[in-house]
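**Folding the chain**
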Amino acid sequence: MGGISGAISPKTMKHWVWDFIERIGELVDDVVSTSFYIAIYYHYIILIRTIMRQTSMIIFESRLNRKDILNYCTMSIDGTDFRIPQQGKACKGNPFASHKYAGKSALRYELGVDILEGNLVWIQGPYPAGKFNDMAIFNKVLRHYLEPWERVEADNGYVGHGDKIKCPKNVANPPENLKMQGRVRARHETLNGRLKNWGILSQTFRHDISLHGSVFHACAVITQLMIDNGEPLFNVEYNDDGIE
């Protein structure tokens, strides 16, 4: 670029890069069912989307496949934060303040992974990390998509609500299950790590935060395609049949 005959100018290159990012992100609309609403925080408009994988190979309902027919928990869930330019002071009460980044500004997404198949089947967000903790995001949307008997595996950020969530500190969680549950959560962290291998997600986002969702969705689409095509997450064994 620049100074070479026939080269593309940085401005033109930037335009096409963003166009490709948006087009890849829009593949989400081809493979998932989405619902959304618009939220306004600190004068920023953020499109909050619910994303459920619904390709011919992987659908949100695939968590209810024959392998999982006797399991109460079919998904692991977790909230993960991504840094954005600082929005106001890094202090308690700032809706963007992330406790994971010492009060610095971040956006939070809720991700769901099919326990036995290891696919990304659920994305909800982005949310201002200081205003919505993991439990608030779960109660806002995903709780209402689960079957009446269904629960999810999660870490202790979701303690409580034992009717829908299993985590180490919840009551009636059998000690003999902790190792199995720990492996499920570790596999989920592997997915979070893969998303943060993307430089634009691992570093502080340098663009308008209203664009973060498009970038995240593009990275998530490509990451899931990699899982589909030879780079799966590690397998876990899971059986909670009959365990209340």
Summary: The radius of gyration is 19 Å.
